[in-house]
Amino acid sequence: MKKIVTIQDISCFGKCSLTVALPIISAMGIETAVIPTAVLSTHTGPGFKDYTFRDLTSDIPAIAKHWKSMKLKFDALYTGYLGSPEQVEIVSDFFNDFGGDDNVIIVDPVLGDAGKLYAGFTMDFVEKMKKLCKKADYIIPNMTEVSFLLGIPYTEVYDEAYVKDVLRKLAALGCKVPVITGVHYDDIQQGAAAYDSEKDEFYFSFDKNVNYRFHGTGDIFSSVFTGACALGMNLQQCIDIAVKFTLDCIEATVPELDEMWYGSCFELCLDKLISYVKKECL
Ligand code: PXL
Question: How far, in Å, is the centroid of ligand 1 from the Cα of 60?
């Protein structure tokens, strides 16, 4: 059985990070170990304020030490939202301890959305995240995160040549395969673009664009991508299944719009995810 460890926060209410990664990766038939980086009463995105934040940074080295003594091994190390620059350093040490030639490191450099950093993040944090990306086999930023990682202006208007250019620049940060989410050249299609810097090859996956943005869809994409990668799917299959399932979740959320301003109804789509995995892995 494949085994992943995911390192990100628990937002107790709001459907993102661990409350998304755990059910999604488990549904893909993969054992999911977790290291919670912080406990928040809600996520920090639009609509929530006055949330609590308990930092768990100091627990991480102790967990790593215990796991090292047990010689635990994982097929993928997957990080999402990290709470502070110090935490990024500690996660970097965790990669040194648990990364290797027989597994993959996947970093979703969670920094912001819609051109802005999430609450509480600074440029110092961005710099630390850039360094962490160097250690990754795969990084999965959205266009906002691309702009902060590369220090370029955020734009919503771009073409394929621009996407290829920024993918090459992301690879130059040191990761092997950058994957950009939420790529769209028009209002008709949306999807993901990836660049395998070792093969010097680009990959694209597009599906229908639905003109609504829901919180946590980046976490959905990255969790499915990570699961697919651990299951041994190739890069094209990984972006295809992640794009398809993210769209399923968005479409399932549209009828629930009034209530679902803080997350998406991914739970209603897990049966589809299981069927996609079965189809790809037969
Ligand atoms: O979905 C990314 C995410 C994860 N965790 C927390 C967040 C966010 C985005 O806002 O606030 C705590």
Answer: 19
Query: Would you state the structure tokens that stand for residue 256, as one six-digit string?
Result: 């629930």
**Cα angle 267, 214, 175; round to 5:** 90
What order do you get walking across the sheet with 104-107 strand by strand?
53-55, 31-42, 3-13, 76-79, 104-107, 138-139, 177-183, 189-196, 201-208
Ligand 1 atom 6 nearest Cα = 43
Which residues span the domain enclosing 158?
A: 3-281
pLDDT in tens, 92-150: 999 999 999 999 999 999 999 999 999 899 999 999 999 999 999 999 999 999 999 99
Does 43 sit in the ligand 1 pocket, CB within 6 Å? yes
Whose C-alpha lies nearest to ligand 1, atom 8? 43
Q: CA angle 54-12-229, nearest 5°?
A: 100
The DSSP string of 5-20 is EEEEEEEEESS-THHH
**How many domains, in total, are found in the chain?**
1
Centroid of ligand 1 to alpha carbon of 136 (angstroms): 20
Neighbours of 240 (CB within 10 A): 22
pLDDT, tens digit, for every residue of 33-89? 999 999 999 999 889 999 999 999 999 999 999 999 999 999 999 999 998 999 999
Q: Which CATH number does the domain housing residue 261 bear?
A: 3.40.1190.20
40 lines ligand 1 (CB under 6 A): yes
- Total H helices, total E strands in the chain: 9, 11
Name 109's bridge partners. none
- Asked if residue 17 has its Cβ within 6 Å of ligand 1, the reply is yes
Q: Which two tokens stand for residue 47?
A: 């609509």
